[in-house]
């Protein structure tokens, strides 16, 4: 007699017996699913078996979903779309249940009893709905159960503010179904809608997964994130997730963002390297730092970090229909103007820098802060500050220059700042620009230095500064320049290499160079047509004419003219 591995006979009756899959054996309440097929006929048992197997498989799948919900962080809020989906699922459930009863047939007593139940459901539902009485034991029980159904499959935090709206959705579905069921009782053909499918919108992806997608997308395109930018954004987004727990992206609220901001306001810069904090999680480190009265990071840095995580949420909103950004409006208010965060160099500071041993005689390139006989004008330590002074370029833009980026056109020597090439990057597309070489740089021997580098076969103008581990050329040099300022005893929190950029801007203004040309020379992004300045709206001849107006009144650099490369 043909049989099946799931069939066995107990007495004269055929039974189903199926083992519990290995992946859930430790948590499933049984070792096998065994029950009667309620027939002694073998052919009938074989006919009933597929349905029994499907029912058992659904039990196993439901157990897996239950385990997954237990592992998954609970949602703090339900979206309007999720609430509407739950309402529709519960409505379908009531209508399907009603249809099953009617298909089985009703005598007069059964029909009357059904209508009494419909009246009761509608009366109670309307009464509770109208008065906002959402906390009846029945409604609470139904709401908790519907979340576990395979077509919903959500886990909601017990303290969520969405519970009242969930109860409301259950009540709404109850009243809607009662009205439709009454129409059926009156003889109107009201169809049961198709069962709504499981609601798994993209915004239920875990934040940790989306962070990886975000960083990969931003780093993929030409002119996209540098490795350092990608690492910084990824680090702080992951730190937020670590602190708030990894959840579906729609499971975070304003309170999570606020708590993260509060921790930042207590954390010192580079807190993972601060003794006593280095082994602590972020939240605990912030608390401990406050107890130890360690000076926290600046408001600017707090806003910078908040900007990283806010940018992630903006990307998620654009790609996955996330309803809101919890980091909007959370920036720390900082007094003073933005440019006060980094000041230009004073005349005295500039004089000190350019009369340091690098420009008057040092011991060696390595010990360039110590007085000696060497003028290292064949090295980047000599030229990078001078180029910064007379171009306003960022340190990374200068140090990544190639020898072929110093060009000439129509008798005008210029520096092309570009990201067109391997391992080149700029802050943004507006940073691409052409900067005429100032006459002072020519007199100091800059073009002779460029030609020397070419003859030596160097592709990069300043090969002395290799790319750092973070993917940037400026990292190592920034430390070197900071050490120079400290050695000269002029270092303070408001100045860095970037101060050359502010110094250049101020000098341009004092030299009566129009702001439009200053923006073009510095690669400042602007709105409208002005945003095209860095891409050639102003011709090289006009830029050169304005550049030649640049002068630093009171700064004596005469000692640099006699130094030959």
Automatic annotation (TrEMBL):
<dbReference type="InterPro" id="IPR011010">
    <property type="entry name" value="DNA_brk_join_enz"/>
</dbReference>
<comment type="similarity">
    <text>Belongs to the 'phage' integrase family.</text>
</comment>
<dbReference type="Pfam" id="PF20172">
    <property type="entry name" value="DUF6538"/>
</dbReference>
<dbReference type="GO" id="GO:0015074">
    <property type="term" value="P:DNA integration"/>
</dbReference>
<feature type="domain" description="Tyr recombinase">
    <location>
        <begin position="340"/>
        <end position="553"/>
    </location>
</feature>
<dbReference type="InterPro" id="IPR013762">
    <property type="entry name" value="Integrase-like_cat_sf"/>
</dbReference>
<dbReference type="InterPro" id="IPR002104">
    <property type="entry name" value="Integrase_catalytic"/>
</dbReference>
<dbReference type="GO" id="GO:0003677">
    <property type="term" value="F:DNA binding"/>
</dbReference>
<keyword id="KW-0238">DNA-binding</keyword>
<keyword id="KW-0229">DNA integration</keyword>
<dbReference type="Pfam" id="PF00589">
    <property type="entry name" value="Phage_integrase"/>
</dbReference>
<dbReference type="GO" id="GO:0006310">
    <property type="term" value="P:DNA recombination"/>
</dbReference>
<keyword id="KW-0233">DNA recombination</keyword>
<protein>
    <submittedName>
        <fullName>Putative integrase</fullName>
    </submittedName>
</protein>
<dbReference type="InterPro" id="IPR046668">
    <property type="entry name" value="DUF6538"/>
</dbReference>
<dbReference type="InterPro" id="IPR050090">
    <property type="entry name" value="Tyrosine_recombinase_XerCD"/>
</dbReference>
<feature type="region of interest" description="Disordered">
    <location>
        <begin position="178"/>
        <end position="201"/>
    </location>
</feature>
């Amino acid at each position: 007699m043909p049989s099946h591995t799931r069939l066995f006979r107990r007495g004269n009756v055929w039974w189903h017996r199926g083992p519990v899959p290995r992946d859930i054996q430790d948590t499933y309440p049984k070792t096998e699913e065994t029950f009667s097929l309620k027939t002694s006929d073998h052919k009938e048992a074989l006919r009933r078996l597929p349905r029994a197997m499907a029912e058992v498989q659904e039990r196993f799948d439901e157990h897996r979903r239950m385990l997954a919900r237990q592992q998954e962080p609970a949602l703090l809020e339900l979206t309007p779309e999720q609430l509407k989906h739950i309402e529709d699922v519960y409505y379908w459930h009531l209508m399907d249940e009603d249809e099953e009863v009617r298909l089985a047939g009703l005598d007069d007593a059964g029909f009357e009893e059904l209508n009494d139940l419909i009246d009761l459901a509608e009366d109670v539902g309307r009464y509770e709905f109208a008065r906002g009485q959402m906390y009846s034991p029945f409604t609470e029980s139904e709401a908790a159960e519907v979340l576990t159904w395979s077509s919903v499959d959500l886990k909601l935090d017990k303290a969520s503010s969405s519970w009242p709206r969930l109860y409301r959705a259950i009540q709404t579905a109850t009243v809607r179904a009662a009205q439709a069921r009454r129409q059926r009782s009156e003889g109107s053909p009201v169809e049961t809608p198709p069962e709504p499918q499981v609601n798994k919108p993209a915004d239920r992806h875990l934040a940790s997964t989306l962070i990886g997608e975000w960083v990969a997308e931003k780093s993929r395109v030409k002119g996209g994130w540098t490795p350092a930018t990608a690492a910084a954004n990824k680090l702080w987004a992951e730190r937020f997730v670590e602190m708030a727990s990894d959840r579906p992206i729609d499971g975070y609220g304003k309170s999570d963002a606020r708590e993260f901001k509060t921790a930042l306001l207590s954390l010192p810069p580079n807190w993972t390297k601060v003794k006593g904090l280095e082994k602590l999680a972020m939240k605990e480190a912030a608390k401990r730092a406050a107890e130890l009265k360690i000076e926290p990071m600046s408001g600017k840095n707090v806003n910078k970090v908040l900007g990283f995580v806010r940018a992630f949420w903006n990307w998620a909103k654009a790609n996955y229909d996330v309803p809101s950004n919890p980091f909007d409006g959370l920036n720390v208010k900082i007094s003073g103007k933005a440019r006060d965060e980094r000041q230009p160099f004073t005349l005295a500071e500039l004089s000190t820098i350019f009369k340091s041993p690098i420009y008057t005689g040092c011991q060696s390139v390595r010990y360039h802060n110590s007085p000696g006989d060497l003028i290292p004008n064949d090295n980047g330590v000599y030229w990078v500050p001078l180029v910064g002074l007379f171009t306003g370029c960022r340190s990374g833009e200068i140090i990544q220059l190639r020898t072929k980026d110093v060009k000439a056109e129509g008798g005008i020597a210029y520096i092309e700042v570009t990201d067109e090439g391997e391992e080149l990057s700029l802050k943004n597309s507006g940073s691409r620009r052409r900067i005429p070489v100032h006459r002072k740089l020519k007199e100091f021997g800059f073009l002779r230095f460029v030609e020397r580098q070419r003859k030596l076969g160097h592709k990069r103008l300043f090969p002395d500064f290799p790319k750092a581990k973070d993917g940037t050329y400026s990292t190592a040099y920034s430390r070197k320049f900071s050490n120079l300022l400290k050695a000269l005893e002029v270092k303070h929190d408001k100045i860095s290499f970037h101060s050359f950029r502010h110094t250049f801007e101020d000098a341009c203004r004092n030299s009566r160079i129009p702001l439009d040309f200053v923006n073009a020379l510095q690669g400042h992004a602007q709105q409208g047509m002005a945003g095209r300045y860095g891409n050639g709206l102003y011709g090289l001849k006009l830029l050169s004419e304005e550049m030649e107006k640049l002068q630093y009144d009171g700064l004596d650099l005469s000692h640099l003219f006699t130094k030959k490369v």
